User: Which sequence fits this backbone?
């Protein structure tokens, strides 16, 4: 246990409570133990030996979404994410330890999809006693419904069109080729059309965020080493992500020597879409800007990019700070997730927007599942997919 770090970081908290109104789990439960300040106090109590790591303590720590809303509000600059990651690494977990590797490993993803399809087809989900496995199967089956894509083989490098302005690396992520392929294709199309070479190093691996946040620091460190070899010291102008969950985690790795940027934010920061030949969208588009994009500090750029989409009628969905699809929470905290996503689904239903643009694949999945349950027919896309759809073929 890294006791010194836990004590030092927890000590920074002056217990002012300014973070409480920003915390989604506190907003739901109105319980101090479900707040950032309360969780820090629980960690302090456990480190000092005053509290046991019993089920109640572990549950309150595991409920944290790691949305980082509390970090933005904190006057003492508590590094809450690092504190929670370190605490979880030292404590038993209430969620199964095999889950991050199952979600991050492409072979296991395919197996889960096949099992899910068969389980749904033959009505076998109820045969599995574990709630987590049942939820995993139903999420996997819904991905299979929406995104039956293991089809495109990515090249290692895509040339820029026109005058070359630079070169970026594209981070596809462990789940990118399963849930984000349309976004990957759109990003390559728009970034190359904007004058940048796009490299897709084949040796890249999962970012490791799910492992780190689940307390598996050893696996997170292994993945970090592989990704540093793929992306660091290569002279890239940026490392581009299509899932801000991965982006916010990678942006905190100091050894990565290029800026980590959401694909849409990068385009907006480097000339925008005004010069691209685009047709009018002519529809209502709901926007959900995830907590992870806020953690990257790139919400304004993504919003500005969408505001420049010709003919789009935009509506920004306002929630409780997190949609509830936060990493493993999508699988392990279904009930809390449904409460957190409800205000977003209510706004979507009232707006009658048939499309939602968001920058994180976990949020996209969460919104898709919740909309389907509410009987709404919507598609959820990355902002660059909207741009790519409007690009006039030349
Ligand atoms: S990271 Fe999010 S859920 Fe966790 S304590 Fe902070 S605000 Fe609350
Ligand atoms: S805002 Fe920061 S210092 Fe204040 S209670 Fe929350 S974590 Fe502690």
Assistant:
């Amino acid at each position: 246990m890294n006791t010194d770090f836990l004590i030092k970081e927890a000590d920074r908290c002056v217990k002012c409570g300014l973070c409480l109104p920003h915390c989604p789990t506190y907003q739901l439960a109105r319980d101090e133990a479900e707040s950032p300040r309360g969780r820090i106090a629980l960690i302090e109590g456990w480190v000092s030996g005053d509290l046991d790591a019993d089920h109640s303590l572990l549950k309150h720590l595991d409920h944290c979404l790691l949305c980082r809303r509390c970090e933005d509000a904190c006057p003492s600059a508590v590094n809450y994410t690092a504190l929670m990651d370190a605490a979880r690494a030292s404590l038993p977990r209430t969620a199964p330890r095999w889950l991050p590797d199952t979600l991050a490993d492409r072979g296991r993803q395919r197996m889960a999809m096949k099992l899910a399809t068969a389980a749904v087809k033959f009505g076998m989900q109820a045969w599995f006693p574990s709630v987590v496995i049942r939820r995993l199967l139903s999420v996997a089956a819904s991905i299979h419904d929406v995104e039956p894509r293991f089809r495109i083989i990515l090249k290692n490098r895509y040339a820029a069109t026109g005058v070359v302005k630079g070169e970026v690396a594209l981070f596809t992520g462990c789940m990118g080729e399963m849930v984000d392929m349309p976004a990957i294709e759109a990003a390559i199309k728009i970034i190359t059309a904007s004058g940048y070479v796009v490299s897709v190093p084949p040796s890249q691996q999962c970012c490791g965020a799910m492992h780190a946040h689940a307390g598996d620091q050893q696996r997170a460190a292994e993945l970090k080493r592989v990704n540093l070899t793929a992306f660091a010291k290569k002279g890239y102008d940026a490392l581009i992500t299509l899932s801000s969950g991965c982006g916010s985690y990678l942006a905190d790795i100091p050894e990565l020597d290029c800026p980590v940027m959401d694909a849409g934010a990068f385009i907006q920061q480097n000339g925008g879409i005004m010069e691209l030949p685009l047709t009018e969208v002519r529809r209502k588009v709901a926007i959900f800007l995830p907590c992870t994009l806020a953690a990257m500090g790139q919400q304004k750029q993504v919003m500005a990019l969408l505001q420049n989409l010709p003919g789009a009628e935009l509506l920004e969905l306002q929630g409780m700070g997190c949609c509830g699809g936060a990493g493993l929470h999508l699988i392990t905290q279904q009930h809390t997730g449904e409460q957190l996503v409800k205000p977003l689904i209510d706004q979507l239903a009232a707006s009658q927007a048939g499309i939602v643009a968001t920058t994180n694949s976990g949020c996209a999945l969460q919104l898709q599942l919740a909309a389907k349950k509410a009987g709404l027919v919507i598609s959820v896309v990355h902002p660059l997919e909207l741009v790519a759809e409007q690009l006039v073929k030349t």
Notes: The two ends are 59 Å apart (CA to CA). The first strand starts at residue 157 and ends at 158. Residues 22-25, 36, 39, 64-70, 80 surround iron/sulfur cluster (ligand 1) (CB under 6 Å). Residues 283-390 form a domain with the Rossmann fold fold (CATH 3.40.50).
